[in-house]
Amino acid sequence: MLASAATALIAAAPPESAPACARKDALGTSRVLAIDARTYPRVGLNSFPQSLPLADHEVVLTFDDGPQPPYTQEVLAALAHECVRATFFLVGKSSAAFPELVRGVAAQGHTIAHHTWSHPMLSKISVAQAKEDIDLGIAADEMALNGASRTTPSTPFFRFHYFASTPATLDLLQSRGIIVFGADVWASDWEEMTADQELKLVTKRLDESGKGIILFHDPKAHTAAMMPAFLRYLHDSGYRVVHIVPAATPQRNADIH
Hints:
The chain is of the alpha/beta class and 257 residues long. It is built from 8 helices and 10 strands. The chain has a single domain (40-246), classed as TIM Barrel (Alpha-Beta Barrel), CATH 3.20.20.
């Protein structure tokens, strides 16, 4: 009963406009979903009790640990070919090293999100150290994207490395209005595998789940090589891509310390 009501609510809600696509056979972006931290403070069933309000066969594509040439560009090319928009959780050090690539990701309409400065396991360091690394990462991403170093993110989306959160760090981010992302489907592309092996693994997991937030890593060569075939699989199997963006909130101008 509740599941039916939720599906009806999703279907009834008018989607924000998705980008038009010139290629008629492209997968495309089905709709845009605006979310806020009050309603969805933590999402992803592999880590938290709730996920995003997706209908059956709707997926959100997310990529961690970039930007990293040449593989981020290869992923971007595959997404562009299919007129698909995704969310990129960036490591601050990489953003500082490749700011033009950060701007390129944003210029193609993708969402820029955050993934710390130095990729530490935040559960193994103090809360003060974790806050510093989170803030340094946000500041580096913002500098690359907007030319201003600030610790209030333009897009308040964050993902922990290894999903290694703690109650204190979760509370810290929630107090700042930052949504924490887990995932619903893992590609496990941090492991050594071929592109074909990854495609078989992630499509099997997705078909078992039926929908959800999918986690990839764009600096991985096998993920970049696999992405065109994976997007074709989504198209041919009736999946629809949802692009996530932050809901409009007032006074996102001043830094929060």
